[in-house]
Design a protein that fits this description.
By secondary structure, the protein is mainly alpha-helical. It is built from 8 helices and 3 strands, in the order αααααααββαβ. It folds into 2 domains: 204 residues, Cation efflux protein transmembrane domain (Alpha-lytic protease prodomain-like, Up-down Bundle), CATH 1.20.1510.10; 77 residues, Cation efflux protein, cytoplasmic domain (Alpha-Beta Plaits, 2-Layer Sandwich). It comes from Candidatus Acidulodesulfobacterium acidiphilum.
Length: 296
């Protein structure tokens, strides 16, 4: 499999492009769902339209976070602005929770007051088309999110997948409503809301872990250790700390070198460690190397 490579300068441009595509698709779907849902007397499709509307706002939040996280380091933010993406992920999760609550409220209202109408067949076509479009967007966005190591983009991808689940429930509800089982539409809405809550909780956990500087998986840390140990002059790794800030890694490492080396030689080894790590992965944003004497 060919290894994926992209310059750091092009990461933001690709993130921006993927976000634009998602926002544009959601605008088209929102207009279609509102028009056909209202004209076709499908409350489920109208509710799904509000879902797509929330996706537009979520996409804008993620895009703005990309723009902020791409800003260079400054005096007030010496570690950069990458955590803005995690804040965006958290906000996307909150939007999902609000949408889930709205589904429960509307569906419960319909069940209690028995407010049912038979939807038009066009509503079934729009809901079915939404499933196909959103599944394509999910796979495409998730692929780029993983390649670019963007938690915000991955969150958007899973939001697309939740839309597939929502639209599937809408299709089922519309089919039963057309056949005369009108109560199935709001029941399907309530079931879907629990899937949305589950996704939102997952995204909240991921964003909080990143904001709390949780260490990456052991396999990632081990790979970093192996690279450091391969640098000539490094005798032992005393301690290493790796944290994520958005898609980027920050590494603090203590290494031991021969105690008889000069300051200049020790400095050169430290620079070699930093250079080796940063050249190995464009997402390693900074490396702090501390030197300790190694005694035989």
């Amino acid at each position: 499999m060919k290894q994926f490579t992209i310059s750091r300068e092009n990461i933001f441009n690709k993130l921006k492009f993927v976000s634009y595509v998602g926002i544009f698709a959601n605008i088209i779907l929102t207009l279609a769902k509102f028009y056909f849902g209202i004209a076709g007397h499908s409350e489920a499709l109208v509710a799904d339209g509000f879902n797509s509307l929330s996706d537009i706002f979520a996409g804008l939040v993620v895009y703005i976070s990309f723009k902020i996280s791409n800003k260079p380091q400054d005096k007030e933010h010496p570690y950069g602005h990458a955590k803005a993406e995690m804040i965006a992920t958290f906000l996307v999760a909150l939007i999902l929770i609000l949408f889930g609550l709205s589904i429960i409220a509307v569906s419960s209202f319909k069940l209690y007051f028995r407010y049912y109408e038979r939807p038009a067949f066009d509503t079934l076509i729009v809901a079915s088309a939404t499933i196909i479009i959103k599944e394509i967007l999910y796979r495409w966005t998730l692929r780029w999110g993983r390649l670019l190591k963007s938690t915000g983009l991955i969150a958007t991808a899973y939001d697309h997948r939740s839309d597939v689940v929502v639209s599937t429930a809408v299709v089922i509800g519309i089919i039963f409503a057309i056949k005369g089982y009108y109560y199935m539409d709001p029941i399907a809405g309530i079931v879907v809301s629990f899937f949305i809550f589950r996704l939102a909780v997952k995204l909240i956990k991921e964003s909080i872990s990143n904001l709390m500087d949780e260490s990456p998986p052991a396999s990632v840390v081990d790979k970093i250790k192996n690279l450091i140990a391969s640098v000539k002059g490094v005798e032992h790794i005393t301690n290493i700390k790796v944290r994520k800030s958005g898609p980027y890694f920050y590494i603090d490492v203590e290494i031991e070198i021969n105690q008889n080396m000069t300051v200049k030689m020790s400095h050169d080894i430290a620079e070699s460690v930093k250079s080796r790590l940063m050249s190995s992965n464009i997402y390693i944003n900074d490396v702090m190397v501390h030197i300790n004497p190694f005694e035989n």
